Amino acid sequence: MITTYEAQYCQLISDIITRGVVKETRNGPTFSLFGTTLTLDSLEWGMFPLLHGRKMFYEGVLGEFAAFIRGPKHINDFKSQGCNYWDAWADSEGKINVDYGNSWIDYNGVNQIAETIKSLQDTPESRRHVISGWRPDKLQSLSLPCCHMLYQWYHNPTTNTLDMIFYMRSVDVMVGLPSDVILAAIWNILMAREVHMNPGKLILMLGDTHIYDNHHDATMEYLGVCKELANDSTDPKTPYKIRNFDTIYNFKAEDFELKYYQPRSPIKFELNV
Questions:
Q1: Per-domain residue ranges for the chain?
Q2: Phi/psi of residue 233, nearest 5 degrees
Q3: How far is it, in rounded angstroms, from Cα 49 to Cα 236?
Q4: 205 vs 152: CA distance, rounded Å
Q5: Does domain 5-258 have CATH number 3.30.572.10?
Q6: CA dist., res. 34 & res. 70, Å (int)
Q7: 35 exposed, middle or buried (CB, 10 Å; 0-12, 13-18, 19+)?
Q8: Alpha-carbon gap, residue 27 to 138, rounded angstroms
Q9: Do the Cβ atoms of 201 and 164 come closer than 8 Å?
């Protein structure tokens, strides 16, 4: 059995392979489509969105979010939260200059997380529940400009659910996208907890959606596994719970508990820096 999320993901991969434009980019040739979407409803059913056709090391992504929410300045800010893949963007002293997280909690003195939580509490039907991570004035000084950069929340008063749009300008489909789904999911879960709502849909709006040429063989291997999953009778449930929640700012990866995740083996994809 294959989840709706993974079926959409596999279809996106197939679309890029069959219809993608070949582009020579800063860090290697890609097959690319522009303006794609994924819509995930698993959180509404109490399930966490993870791929089953390849093992996802979700704990590191949860640690990445925990680092973001604290405003990371150094590689140790990530490693202390259990996230060990930011070394490539640190300087010789371990310093990292990113808008991820930092612009969320301090955009020219504005804590956008706090303001969005307050607006969801005070005026839940407002259309202004928006956080921006894009800082044109800082692009040249950043270790890595934000790939995901705009976030909006929507309250459904009928179901008291909190939906989230997660916009990405640049999408590494095989490495970045599955991890960013995890990040979007935990962010929406925690925002919903803050405002006493239920986590709802995740809508990922994707700009330059690409597969690197050097990912081709591993991508085809993954698609082959997904064909096997479609004929597998195993129910891919991934129920979760958050332990010891008091505030989004104190979240740690160990606060997250996942059950029944039984993926296939990992598939290695090279990180194109």
A1: 5-258
A2: -85, -5
A3: 10
A4: 11
A5: yes
A6: 32
A7: exposed
A8: 21
A9: yes
Give me the tens of pLDDT residue by residue for the chain, a chain 273 residues long.
899 999 999 999 999 999 999 999 999 999 999 999 999 999 999 999 999 999 999 999 999 999 999 999 999 999 999 999 999 889 999 999 999 999 999 999 999 999 999 999 999 999 999 999 998 988 888 888 899 999 999 999 999 999 999 999 999 999 999 999 999 999 999 999 999 999 999 999 999 999 999 999 999 999 999 999 988 887 889 999 999 899 999 999 999 999 999 999 999 999 887
Among 15, 45, 65, smallest CA distance to 236 is for 45
Which residue matches tokens 């919903």? 192
Hey, what long-range contacts does 87-91 have (CB within 8 A, 24 or more apart)?
88/271, 88/273, 89/143, 89/144, 89/273, 90/143, 91/143
